[in-house]
Write a structure and sequence with these properties.
By secondary structure, this protein is of the alpha/beta class. The protein has a single domain, classed as Spore Coat Polysaccharide Biosynthesis Protein SpsA, Chain A. Helix content is 20%, strand content 18%. The strands form 3 sheets. It has a 6-stranded mixed sheet. Strands 4-11-10 form a 3-stranded mixed sheet. Helix 1 (17-30) packs across helix 6 (212-222). The chain is globular, with a radius of gyration of 17 Å. The termini are far apart.
C-alpha cells in the first residue's frame, strides 16, 4: 500500500456499534489523504484469533488489536485506535509522525484512572502503560514478534505493556493531543483525537461529558442523506 494512504484498524465492539461508524466518519471528514479502514471484528477472525475472553477485558478487541501487524502482512505502517474516539483534526498530521527509528509509536500516558468502574459497570483495571495501546502506530516490519500464536497466548500485560519489543527505546512518543483522555484530562480545545475511555456519549451516563456535543453532531452527519 502506498505511503500516502493511511491504513487504519479500528477496534469494533458489538456493545457500541455506533462508535466505530462515528469515529470513521470523523476521520473521513477531516482527512486530506486517502484512508483505508479495517474494523477488527471477532466474527471476522475465525481461525486467526482463538483465545478465550478474559473477564478483565472491557472490549472485544482488547487483545485482538495486536494482530494489526499480522493482518498488515508485516509491511508498511498501520494505525490502530479504539472505537470510542473522535477525530477533531486531519489524520494526515498523525500519519506524518511515522518515524522508522521506532517499532511502534503511541501517546505515553502517565496517570492513575480517577474511577474504579467504567461503562456498563466494568472494572477499570490499573497497570503500567495504561492506555498506551489504545492508539498505536505500528511499524509493521519491526513487529514480527506479534505472531498470530503469540497474540493468542501471551498475557494481557505482555501485550499491553509492549513486552513483545526488546526494550522501551523502540517505542516512539506521540503528542498527548493524539489520544486525549476525556474526563481523565481537563478540556483542551486543541485536542486532535479525543478518547472517551470511561465511556462514550452513546451511554446515557456519559452524554454530557467533554466533547460529547461534537460527537453527537458527527453522528448526525454520519446519518446524513440528501433527499430528492
Amino acid at each position: 500500500m502506498k505511503d500516502n494512504v493511511a491504513r487504519i484498524f479500528v477496534g469494533f465492539d458489538s456493545k457500541e456499534v455506533v462508535a466505530y461508524h462515528v469515529l470513521t466518519q470523523s476521520i473521513i471528514e477531516r482527512s486530506s489523504i486517502p484512508v483505508v479502514f479495517s474494523p477488527i471484528v471477532l466474527n471476522n477472525l475465525d481461525g486467526i484469533f482463538t483465545r478465550e475472553r478474559n473477564p478483565l477485558q472491557s472490549t472485544e478487541f482488547s487483545f485482538s488489536r495486536f494482530l494489526v501487524p499480522y493482518l498488515s502482512d508485516y509491511q508498511g505502517w498501520s494505525i490502530f485506535m479504539d472505537c470510542d474516539m473522535l477525530a477533531r483534526a486531519d489524520i494526515a498530521e498523525l500519519w506524518a509522525l511515522r518515524d522508522d527509528r521506532y517499532a511502534a509509536m503511541c501517546v505515553k500516558h502517565d496517570y492513575q484512572p480517577k474511577i474504579e468502574t467504567k461503562f456498563l459497570g466494568q472494572t477499570q483495571t490499573k497497570y503500567e502503560k495504561k492506555n498506551w495501546s489504545s492508539m498505536i502506530l505500528f511499524n509493521n516490519a519491526r513487529c514480527t514478534a506479534l505472531t498470530k500464536d503469540f497474540v493468542n497466548t501471551a498475557t494481557g500485560l505482555q501485550l499491553h505493556q509492549f513486552k513483545w519489543l526488546e526494550n522501551d527505546d523502540q517505542i516512539g512518543e506521540v503528542p498527548v493531543t493524539w489520544n486525549y483522555l476525556v474526563n481523565e484530562y481537563d478540556y483542551r480545545e486543541d485536542a486532535k483525537l479525543v478518547h472517551f475511555t470511561d465511556g462514550g456519549p452513546y451511554f446515557d451516563e456519559y452524554r454530557n461529558d467533554d466533547y460529547a456535543e461534537e460527537w453527537f453532531a458527527m453522528r448526525e452527519r454520519m446519518l446524513h442523506v440528501q433527499q430528492k
